[in-house]
What does this fold into?
Amino acid sequence: MQILVGDLWGAFEGKDYGKFNDIDKLTMFPDYRVPQILYHVGVFEYSESVKETIKGLIEIPAGTKLEV
It folds into this structure.
């Protein structure tokens, strides 16, 4: 349920269906969200090839060097 709430909050930017007065009480997010958030706030930088892979919606196989 927390993943749904987090996704709604993000999609609606904390407004309308995404407004939750206790959003800070969520305790976890899926692993894929952590790098997304860190990239968004400027903590992570990706190489051009990684950015193109992501933008191209190309699957990165689990366990590969790129995925790890």
Residues 2-11 form the longest helix (10 residues). The radius of gyration is 15 Å. Residues 10 and 18 are 7 Å apart (CA to CA).
